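Hi C.,

You asked whether I'd gotten around to modeling the 112-residue construct. I have! Everything is below, sequence then structure, no commentary in between.
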Amino acid sequence: MKIVMAVIKPFKLDEVRDALTAIGIQGLTVTEVKGYGRQKGHTEIYRGTEYAVNFLPKLKIEIAVGDDMVDKTIDAVSSAAKTGQIGDGKIFVYSIDQAVRIRTGETGADAL
């Protein structure tokens, strides 16, 4: 079992969700986060005053999948979240040692 974690631009969420649904992903967790990568933020003008925006709004999506679904999940997120512009995001994959469905007590891959 793996967690596929993606940091994406907020306006791409619906497209990513639709792409994941299309490959059979049944659930995900979304968190609003702020950060920056190579783009290092930007400057904006508000009421005539320029100020720096050092941390940009992003969404972190976490999807728990079986080992056999990792590549399909990465492909779906990548294609749906890509704009071709700087700041499209990143995808990370890490292992899950244990999973438990609280309601039924199922464990392992059955809990996903």
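If it helps when you're writing up: Strands lie at 2-8, 29-35, 42-46, 49-53, 56-65, 89-95.

Thanks,
B.
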